[in-house]
Design a protein that fits this description.
This protein is of the alpha/beta class. It folds into 3 domains: 317 residues, no CATH class; 113 residues, 3-Layer(aba) Sandwich (D-Maltodextrin-Binding Protein, domain 2), CATH 3.40.190; 175 residues, Serine Threonine Protein Phosphatase 5, Tetratricopeptide repeat (Alpha Horseshoe), CATH 1.25.40.10. Helices cover 67% and strands 6% of the residues. Helix 1 runs antiparallel to helix 6 and helix 9 runs antiparallel to helix 10. The chain starts with a strand and ends with a helix.
């Protein structure tokens, strides 16, 4: 494999080719690091925690949806997109394929991290060559392999390793594209747009680094064909992201708000206008990179800068590509600024910028070698090798020690035994929902679901207890419940009331207690067969759906009830029967209003706006005096990215009903559709509509207890 980079400074041409030996060295770095990773995973017998189990669940679900894993089958693109309502699907799709190849045990599934790590090493190697030469590519790849932060990400089933790999690929290709010495930019433009798309489809936080980098690349590229290439890249990125974004944009926005704004408030992260905010990530670097690596690398970079200032007036050939270095430094600073602006802080959020920093550190090491050659020309190489050995001997053991410490702190619990106990009592293909009241790293709704769904299982966990309103539905409908004796984990006081209600109700029977490693136990409870039967939500749903015609008050009740039901019935088994009943009723009576409301609500719950629009348009005809079918019809058109139709619906209905919400929806749809001249009207009508909704909801809000208000 060959890579050619042409550089020009003054009248000098620089030609560099990466030979096969270079790639053998890179492959060797990946093989050794992967061997050490697998050695670590062989001793990792702990359980995946909240985030890790959630991402494993997503990979398992996507593997099933592709028809590659037992318990699933291909059901079309919409069903596939349903599985990624908040985070894009690319990593889960790739990880799901890898699970299908290697197995669904968490240690087996972690092979995907090695694949992503390999992509990262290749990206850093190629970028290093573009910046200077093969030596920098090797150093950068080597530092990637021993970096404590990236070593930890290779042993933690989260999305930052694939995200870092694709962000680095994109920065490398965009840097090549914007390089003024590059005369063949179409290849880099196309590769950069594809990897840009891939990074976003892994996690939308890629935009924190890539959006400012993309803007900078476009502004700094003055070649004739750059505008056409930029337009082509934008078309590729938009065409790739739109199917997912169109399908899931509402849940994505709400999920991003919860993950970024609400989480930051709960965790007490520093305010934007504080020194702590701007030093939050720099303070992590000694731990993430290694103190010695950081000191040698940064001091070497300072020497490099000083040597450039001394020689700036000389016509001096160099193998450094300074325009490429400028690109790396500018994008690193921009990425750090934008990432620091985001309220929610976490060690792993800065990971996509670490490869850039490690390449700079590699350049610092090379500068020390250059200095050593001048001072001790006979022994310079042995001294630089000695410094590398010293760095590794200090950095890697520290990183490995943290990994061993992580192993010791791994969460061990009776989760697998609990899942097996439930499955033993049910048929293999039974769709089971288990209510999980405690929430601890070793037992929570996410890892119950993952272990319950392995090997074609149909057992999933759902957490209830965040609100006292959960108690009555659990007592009426739940079949299986898990409680905790001792530490309950991160739960609200209302969960303790649910715990006591279950224990004291005589509705549930304790099947078995499972001791926990560090004290306490978990207990498995099952509904007694001689108590009152489980209430059917299928019978209740039509009446509940009919409440939509009351507007906000009806909506509040509908979604409160459904939110709890989706916890009690995690497989949503009621939906199919409700749909069948409603369609049969419509065959007998095409004007059946209850069935239209049921189907309209089901379409909203399953994220099928076109189907919802069909049912609400029928309800417009059946209920000419009621404005709410038109309101919902306008909203689902907007949700389906059809704002002009939404505005048309709202305008026609407004002429008939003269309703503040319809006026606001017309203005909102027009503005989103591009009719900015409706903005003054929207500024006036939307607040009035919001005030109307709040007034209608206020009697319900006043009747709720404080903890219920917080939950809603």
């Amino acid at each position: 494999m060959a890579f050619t980079s042409k550089r020009r400074k003054g009248k000098t041409n620089y030609h560099m080719k990466i030979n096969l030996r270079f790639w053998v060295y890179i492959f060797f770095i990946w093989i050794v690091s992967t061997y050490l990773d697998r050695l670590w995973w062989a001793h990792q017998t702990g359980l995946p925690s909240w985030d890790q189990a959630d991402y494993l669940n997503s990979a398992l679900g996507h593997g099933r949806a592709l028809g590659l894993l037992p318990g699933g089958e291909w059901q079309g693109w919409k069903n596939l997109l349903d599985l990624s309502p908040k985070i894009p699907p690319l990593a889960s799709l790739v990880n799901g394929v890898i699970i299908a190849l290697v197995g669904d045990d968490p240690q087996q599934a972690a092979w995907s991290l090695s694949i992503w790590h390999g992509i990262l090493i290749v990206a850093v190697a190629g970028w290093g060559v573009h910046l200077r030469n093969e030596k920098l590519g090797l150093l950068g790849s080597f530092f990637i392999a021993i970096s404590p932060a990236l070593l930890q990400l290779r042993s933690d089933y989260v999305l930052e390793m694939p995200l870092t790999a694709f962000v680095t690929l994109t920065l490398w290709q965009l840097g090549c594209w914007s390089d003024p010495n590059n005369n063949n930019t179409w290849k880099n433009s196309l590769l950069g747009s594809i990897t840009f798309l891939g990074a976003i489809l892994i996690k939308q936080s890629a935009l924190l680094v890539l959006l400012p980098a993309g803007v900078w690349a476009t502004l700094s590229n003055h070649k004739k064909e750059s505008k056409l290439q930029s337009l082509t890249a934008i078309c590729i990125i938009l065409s790739g992201i739109m199917p997912w974004l169109h399908h899931n944009w509402i849940t994505t926005l709400s999920g991003t708000n919860r993950a970024v704004i609400e989480s930051a408030a709960k965790e007490g992260d520093p305010s934007l206008f504080t020194i702590e905010n701007w030093t939050w990530y720099p303070k992590l670097l000694p731990e993430q990179i290694g103190s010695l690596l950081l000191i040698i690398g940064i001091s070497g970079c300072l020497l490099w800068i000083a040597s450039r200032k001394q020689n700036h007036q000389k016509v001096n050939s160099t193998i450094d590509n300074y325009s490429a270095w400028k690109w790396l430094i500018v994008t690193f600073i921009l990425g750090w600024i934008v990432t620091s602006i985001i309220p929610n802080k976490d060690n792993r959020y800065i990971a996509p910028l670490l490869p850039s920093l490690l390449l700079l550190i590699g350049r610092g090491f090379i500068q020390w070698e250059i200095l050593a050659k001048k001072i001790w020309p006979e022994h310079s190489r042995s001294r630089i090798i000695l410094s590398l050995i010293t760095t590794v001997s200090v950095t890697f053991p520290t990183a490995w020690k943290s990994q061993v410490s992580y192993l010791k702190k791994s969460h061990h619990g009776p989760l697998k035994d609990i899942v097996e106990e439930i499955k033993k009592s049910e048929e293999n293909d039974s769709k089971i929902t288990v209510i999980v009241v405690p929430s601890t790293p070793d037992l929570n709704q996410h890892n119950i679901s993952y272990f319950g769904r392995r090997k074609a299982g149909q057992l999933i966990g759902r957490q209830l207890g965040n609100n006292e309103k959960d108690i009555k539905p659990v007592l009426k409908q739940a079949t299986w419940v898990i409680l905790a004796e001792g530490n309950q984990g991160s739960i609200r006081p209302s969960a303790l009331k649910l715990d006591q209600a279950i224990r004291n109700s005589k509705i549930f029977k304790e099947i078995r207690q499972f001791p926990r490693k560090y004290g306490g136990s978990y207990s498995l409870w099952r509904r007694r067969s001689n108590v009152f039967p489980i209430e059917s939500f299928v019978d209740k749903f039509p009446k509940l759906a009919r409440g939509l015609e009351q507007g906000p008050r009806g909506l509040e009740i509908v979604f409160d009830e459904i939110a709890i039901q989706h916890m009690l019935d995690g497989h949503f088994m009621y939906q199919n029967q409700v749909r069948i009943n409603a369609l049969e009723n419509l065959k007998r009576n095409p004007k059946d209003i209850n069935s239209r409301w049921s189907l309209g609500l089901l379409s909203i719950l399953t994220n099928r706006p076109k189907e919802a629009a069909n049912h609400f348009s029928k309800l417009e005809e059946l209920l000419p005096a009621n404005p709410w079918p038109s309101i919902y019809l306008s909203i689902v058109n907007l949700a389906d990215w059809n704002p002009w139709e939404g505005a048309s619906v709202a305008n026609k209905a407004q002429a008939k009903h003269n309703h503040l919400i319809l006026a606001a929806l017309a203005d909102l749809n027009y503005v989103i559709g591009g009719a900015v001249w409706h903005l003054p009207s929207a500024i006036n009508s939307i607040p009035k509509a919001s005030e109307t909704i709040e007034k209608e909801l206020s009697p319900i809000s006043k009747s709720l207890k404080p903890d219920q208000k917080a939950s809603n």
